[in-house]
Design goal:
Protein name (chains A, B): Acyl-CoA dehydrogenase
Strand order of the largest sheet of chain C: 1-4-5-8
Mean pLDDT of chain A: 86
Keywords (chains A, B): FAD, Flavoprotein, Oxidoreductase
CATH superfamily of the largest domain in chain C: Butyryl-CoA Dehydrogenase, subunit A, domain 3
Largest sheet of chain C: 4 strands, mixed
Low-confidence stretches of chain A: 255-268, 410-432
CATH class of the largest domain in chain C: Mainly Alpha
Low-confidence stretches of chain C: none
Number of domains of chain C: 3
Number of strands of chain A: 9
Radius of gyration of chain C: 21 Å
Helix content of chain A: 40-55%
CATH topology of the largest domain in chain C: Butyryl-CoA Dehydrogenase, subunit A, domain 3
Pfam families (chains A, B): Acyl-CoA_dh_1, Acyl-CoA_dh_M, Acyl-CoA_dh_N
Strand content of chain C: 15-25%
Order of helices and strands of chain C: HHHHHHEEEEEEEEHEEHHHH
Order of helices and strands of chain A: HHHHHEEEEEEEEHHHHEHHHH
CATH class of the largest domain in chain A: Mainly Alpha
Helix content of chain C: 40-55%
Organism (chains A, B): marine sediment metagenome
Radius of gyration of chain A: 23 Å
Largest sheet of chain A: 4 strands, mixed
GO molecular function (chains A, B): flavin adenine dinucleotide binding; oxidoreductase activity, acting on the CH-CH group of donors
Distance between the termini of chain C: 27 Å
Distance between the termini of chain A: 46 Å
CATH architecture of the largest domain in chain A: Up-down Bundle
Number of strands of chain C: 10
Shape of chain A: globular
CATH superfamily of the largest domain in chain A: Butyryl-CoA Dehydrogenase, subunit A, domain 3
Number of helices of chain A: 13
Structural class of chain A: alpha+beta
Strand order of the largest sheet of chain A: 1-4-5-8
Number of domains of chain A: 3
Oligomer: heterotetramer
Mean pLDDT of chain C: 96
Chain lengths: ~425, ~425, ~375, ~375
Amino acid sequence: MHDLEAFRAETRAWLEDNCPASMRTPMPEDEVVWGGRNAVFRNPDSKLWLERMADKGWTTPTWPQEYGGGGLDKAHSLVLAEEMQRIAARPPLVSFGISMLGPVLLEMATHEQKLEHIPKIVRGEIRWCQGYSEPGAGSDLAGLGTKAILQGDDYIINGSKIWTSYADQADWIFCLVRTDFEAPKHSGISFILFDMASSGVSTKPIKLISGNSVFCETFFDDVRVPVSNLVGRLNDGWTIAKRLLQHERTMISGFGLSSGRNNRGGLADSLAETAMLYRGDVVELSDPVLRDQIAQFRIDSEAFTLTSQRSAQEAKQSKGPNATSSVLKNYGCELNKRRYELALQAAGTQALGWESLTEDDSDFSQQELAVARQWLRSKGNSIEGGTYEVQLNVIAKRVLGLPDMTAMVGNTAGKQGATGQNSAAEKTATES
Amino acid sequence: MHDLEAFRAETRAWLEDNCPASMRTPMPEDEVVWGGRNAVFRNPDSKLWLERMADKGWTTPTWPQEYGGGGLDKAHSLVLAEEMQRIAARPPLVSFGISMLGPVLLEMATHEQKLEHIPKIVRGEIRWCQGYSEPGAGSDLAGLGTKAILQGDDYIINGSKIWTSYADQADWIFCLVRTDFEAPKHSGISFILFDMASSGVSTKPIKLISGNSVFCETFFDDVRVPVSNLVGRLNDGWTIAKRLLQHERTMISGFGLSSGRNNRGGLADSLAETAMLYRGDVVELSDPVLRDQIAQFRIDSEAFTLTSQRSAQEAKQSKGPNATSSVLKNYGCELNKRRYELALQAAGTQALGWESLTEDDSDFSQQELAVARQWLRSKGNSIEGGTYEVQLNVIAKRVLGLPDMTAMVGNTAGKQGATGQNSAAEKTATES
Amino acid sequence: MSLVLNEDQTMLQQSARDFCREQAPVAVLRHLRDSKHPDGYSAEVWQSMVELGWAGMAIPEAYEGFGFGYSGLGLVLEETGRTLVPTPLVSTVLLSATLINLAGNEEQKLELLPGIARGDSVVALALEETAIHNPLHIELKAVKTGSGYILNGNKDFVLDAHVADQFIVVARTEGESGHQHGISLFTVDAASQGVEVQRLNMVDSRNAGNISLVDVEVPEEALLGQENKGWAALSRTLDIGRIGLAAEMLGGVQEVFERTVEYMKQRTQFGVPIGAFQALQHRAAIMYSEIELCKSLVLKALYELDRGEEAEDIPALASMCKAKLSEIYMLVTNEGVQMHGGIGMTDEFDIGFFLKRARVAQQTLGDAAFHRDRYASLRGF
Amino acid sequence: MSLVLNEDQTMLQQSARDFCREQAPVAVLRHLRDSKHPDGYSAEVWQSMVELGWAGMAIPEAYEGFGFGYSGLGLVLEETGRTLVPTPLVSTVLLSATLINLAGNEEQKLELLPGIARGDSVVALALEETAIHNPLHIELKAVKTGSGYILNGNKDFVLDAHVADQFIVVARTEGESGHQHGISLFTVDAASQGVEVQRLNMVDSRNAGNISLVDVEVPEEALLGQENKGWAALSRTLDIGRIGLAAEMLGGVQEVFERTVEYMKQRTQFGVPIGAFQALQHRAAIMYSEIELCKSLVLKALYELDRGEEAEDIPALASMCKAKLSEIYMLVTNEGVQMHGGIGMTDEFDIGFFLKRARVAQQTLGDAAFHRDRYASLRGF
């Protein structure tokens, strides 16, 4: 206890000295630091802040110091988080390396692989993307067709991926490839890392309904990758993939997390305030039905936040994300979707603009436009990272122990080389 | 046209002369006339009214005169219905013979069978019950085990039925029995009629959560039934059963029909008025959220009524109930369930009484008590006559043409002797 | 009462469907959007529609219309809702022609309606003053002068504002915002001194704009109907507009649903079409049922509109239609995107256009909550 | 903040669960109902609970209680919610003891609380005057006399009214119905002249009754707390009651859900367990998720109650709990009956008892809509 209090004091002092003032203000979306070879720092303080935090390993406070992490235990990292929150410090670095790949490498990679990749993740030197989904496969991740064929000490990779977030801006990719073409489909997959600058890699952005293009199609044409880049055992990539998906779900469920708070940018800061503003209400929201719906939304948001906290407390006893991650992922996504549907109702036609055609944004403010875009974006929450339907299947089967229809009425496993895990009835309906 | 107008005038005059005054008032539940050997006429006018209407065949206006029906075409029967509605005349007779068995007999029975049974249905002399569901079978109707074994000119019937409505008050039963024990399960069923007074028939009422006991368990112990009581072809009873189920669905969907009108007995006459009454509101319902929900309910009710009318108009071109009967059955039941949930909210704790303990009903009025009972009763709407889930399966497969999972992943048909029609994936989840 | 289409109506529906599929598919809207088309609608497509008689659909023959009634216009709107083709059909034909016909005197009708029927003019109804539909909230002032009126104020979200030749401006000549009495209607030439139009780029890529009127002078003849008494005709026009819009929404609802069911049959996952999954089947069956109810409401409302004087209960029917269609268009577009999965999120795929249109159509002339509230008042609770 | 149970709490939960399963299953309620038991609860079962310390759970040790706090009482209520055993736990321990402890002076506490902790007395809170929860709607009048007060008025739906020894009557000494000021609390002996109790036979077979007070005289010492200033203690007591009731409802929710999932695994239709049907699986998974949220709310609220002075946001937490649990208890009982099919509709089967209890519990101390409205006000919109 004494130690913790001392650490708190030190941390507070250090942050006071090292966190630039502009890093204590709400972060506009375009100032998020993703790192990488071509990292953009729209605000020069961001660079300074990243470097200072990375030097202490505090971009990844609980990772081992050996690989550049902060080496803090849970209790100390909580203190750090609290102290950062106290001064509203921005996260110095956001990346798939931190949220997805890193934890899995730490758990499953060799010492050499860790030494090569982890420090660059910690320092934001390399930006990663995820090569999972393929055109036509969707939720049926394991049905992937990208091939890796051994040629001497290299694999030659051919195929394509889809829904690769920020592939056009990433330096390296962690990728699922098929290395055994005879085995049942889950048993012939390997997990491999390679440089996006390799010869034969190309990307093409996908334009979304929200107007953004965060996703790409990614093509591999005779890409040569050293065997040493394989993580884990050959043909055992599915185990790693599943582990990583759990981390992804935990991250996506965070969408719903801030619903109960007022710390999001944009007009949806407070649905109730927005609704009152556009109706000229002062004391009470004058549309009682919308008021009821917003109340219901906020109650669910608060309950969701508490459930996330409870889940974290329960997880302390065990290790890593637990079964509730499916519950949280789904609920968080549905909350986010509800939030934006309510935001549209709150602001009426003013939340339905696409672009401003005036210089002073007198037709639509940037915040209003952001609501419409984010509303559209939110529709993807229940598709990416395992669809809503897949998560419900998982809860029904793994948490509630309900029986598998396929096992009851005959099994296609043979036909497709599937294990019990991906029997048809267990699975989804829509694609990732 | 001229003819219709003349018929209208005649009918109006006849009704004026023959419909007793008390038969033009709202009908309390205990004055409904079900007919049968032990018919109860709580109001002596009911008997008079039944006899007069039956003499003209107007208890079943469109049935052939040959068998005692009214012999009217659609147009004339509509005029009769309108004229009866004009004076708010009560239906003279309500029975499963009219709503379910009769139409099927007219379509599929022999002339002799019709001559024997139809006139007694028309006159309310025989009250019928339906022997379909069996313990353990539930929605899987065709899985029935009641056996009929030929012995000379008789069948010897052994087995039991469940959820037999009013079996303890019925005179005859129309019943599904298994007559072929080798064939696939749908192909070994026959449709047979017999007297409930036959030796070996016994019934036991089932008490429901609503406190009522409209259903029975019915037991057959070596019941002897003449072969001539078989309707349709031997082992082809499933065809008749399905036809009859369509009529049953049409009838049950009627639950939702009056939702938009104010012609139901009891406190739920108008949800809005009830809600205002219990809040002391005069101009507008003071709970705006309940007001919104009641508005939504009433809009859906009005739309449902229009859809029933449209479906009837569309059915004119074809014959008999059409594919929308599943839609209407489900929607009607869900509306009825919604209605009573709203009624509970409308009247608060006053709608949560079970019995009155006072002589003057000062604790709970009979209307209030009826709401609680009907609320509980309404929960069965989406279970009886084909569950909610079965109806959704039917819509998905037959109306939308969506594929059958079982056909995709292997088929249990062989194991169970099922045809494609009752493959597992198509079917329900809950029992009737 | 007939809730099934007669032979003429079936033919009209079929020809409208064929036309929209062939001449005005979703690609037309996409092209207009991507090319940042200055008009926001295709004059060629519109001209073809005019030739088919659609612009004069509900205009009486005395004013060069074709007197097909609102049932006919509703069928056409339903088909345009299936392909989302932007035209002045809603602004000019459904709303403005109706209002002129209801409120105008003989000269005004003769002056304005034939031009609409011929497709010569675009007329826009300038009503809203807030982001939330509120037709009694009218603060734009019209002050009487010796020779006419002077108008001052702003209007928001006016459909087809930047391509309109004329506006019908809803103004207040007396009383306070919120009151029916004191509302007056004026025709205002778009080129008048003091009128400024700001085009809006809406999420559904359909035309709308904000208007400001600063000391705009109009002659006495610009008054449509009686001074202070514009509400009755306006209110009826809005109900007709809501029903017509519901017909358009019904087209979109059906199109999205049919595309989704088709996709469920084609798209394979884990070796089976996704339409074989029972959870999706049930959701599809529930949507189907709701759509059946939507159809009945729209058919009934259009039928009643054409009964003229005898019409029953138009305000309640209009609110029922708009409430229910708003609700179900939202449901079906959300489910449509979800069931299409990743591809439904791409701009390349059409489903997003319907998602966007659904929300703008919902807000136009009152959303589901607005109309349930109104319905409750109309039904006395 | 801890949202997981500590060791003591886990032990208490287990022993309460064991006790309820063995000594107080649903069969106890069924028997009380079917035998038309005059008391409506089993004195023997209650006596055993008293011996386990449940009656003194949240009563301070100074008044012979055991000071386990509301977390402890909440755990016990949750378990009684799983078997629906009727006891004076809600009326006497959760509501009345709390109110006496909050509002009473030292003599009153010493006089009343030990009796409750010992299980000697049943005390009922007489609050409601309408069929819809409305704690500010107080019209029952208390008029000051030389020696005390005279009470006149009626109370509805008083839990355990006909078995109570004492009532705490919420009365108006000043002001109008709807106002906080002017509300005063009185202890009234059930045997007092002028008190009449009419037992109610409710759908959930739990005890409630209507009370009429005609010229009931009480001494000055019957006033609990200050004249006109009863609202603060009452309001906090109601919030504690709502949280406790939510804990009871959480027990029922879990019990119904667990029984339903179990049934889904056992019940076979068309040759497969019905739990293998994806549509039902998804509905079960959705319920599971909602129940997880319910648990977190109740745990948090109980935790905060025991923090005493430092407690955060009790009114909002109480409303969140009661709103959410009302909603989910309704969902789960409706689905429970539907998924059980015909057998769920029979009285022989237990599920109907939960269905009935869910609706009475929902109405008690405010339903979901009441609490969402209150929450919105508390959160400033």
